[in-house]
Amino acid sequence: MQSSNPVLNRLGQAARQERSQVQPPSFGAPAGYGYPPPPAATRAMTIDDVVVRTVALLAVTGIFGAGAWVLLPDVGGITAIAAIGSIVAGLVLGLVISFMQITNPAVIIPYAALQGVALGLVSRWYEHAFNGIVIQAVIGTFGIFAIMAVLYKLQILRATPRFTKMVIGALIGVVVLSLANYLFYLFGVNLGLRDYGTDGKVGWLPIVFSLVIIVVAALTFVLDFDAVEQGVRFGLPEKYSWYCSFGILVGLIFLYYEILRMLSYLRR
User: Fold this and answer.
1) What values do phi and psi take at 69, rounded to 5?
2) Which range, 18-22, 28-32, 100-104, 243-247, is most confident?
């Protein structure tokens, strides 16, 4: 299985490794002699599987986000520790899931829960600074996701090899620039790509950079849709629907944070 989507290629490699571990018994050998029993038939994943699991992960994220917003005290020290802790833990777990291609829901669901706690606390902070901004960001996030789904369904956007390389390159570029800007900011130098305050007017550069990130984040959904579509076509096992749902959740969270930041710029 080869695809223009590198994520799908990695999934295909994992599926091939699983199948290669099963060796058929030689002709005439007694059943169970020298070979493990044949595995039970595994159902191939479907688009419905991905949709159901994505909704489930979003529900977990939303429940834990609402719980963190309501239950955790709005005290600077406690909120900061809980927010930073959940963000770091979620980042580490997300990297582990990505690089190890984990399809176990017992690992992916805790990731959604950790991200929910972080989202709830960060959203509460933004809502206190800019009333009504959270619902605007939620509508904007799912609105962009729906638009990208329609564009993909109509085949206006497709994950060709060139398109995939451009999106991945742009994604790496904006992430590296964002991290570099923050590291310089910690040492008292701001490159101007980000504005970390909550008051005063914002220059044109942070707004443009934020808009670029939103566009790149939106385009990553095309890669997600392509991975799901081709994964179904090539018959990946059902458990890989969890991995595909994880990828969609990561994209939605990334897009939500950036829309939240962009709206805060505009509100200022």
Assistant:
1) -60, -45
2) 243-247
φ and ψ of 88, to 5 deg: -65, -45
CB atoms within 10 A of CB 54: 21
pLDDT reported for residue 210: 95
pLDDT at 1 over 80: no
Task: Using the Cα atoms of residue 181, residue 194, residue 117 and residue 97 in order, give the sign of their dihedral.
Answer: negative
Q: What is the per-residue pLDDT across 26-63, written as a single tens digit (0 to 9) for each?
A: 444 444 444 454 455 578 889 999 999 999 999 999 99
Distances (CA, A) of 218 to 143, 151, 263: 10, 11, 16
User: Which residue intervals of 76-198 are DSSP H helices?
Assistant: 76-100, 105-129, 133-153, 161-186
pLDDT of residue 2: 45
Which residues, other chains included, contact 31 with Cβ-Cβ below 8 Å and sequence gap of 6+? 25
* Per-residue DSSP letter, 44: B
**Which residues, including other chains, have CB under 8 Å from residue 83's CB and lie 6 or more apart?**
117, 118, 121, 122, 125
Cβ–Cβ under 8 Å, residues 125 and 119: no
Partners of residue 44 on adjacent β-strands: 237
DSSP label at residue 237: B
Asked if 216 and 144 touch (Cβ cutoff 8 Å), the reply is no
For residues 247 and 56, the answer to whether their CB atoms sit within 8 Å is no
Locus of tokens 């044109």: 204
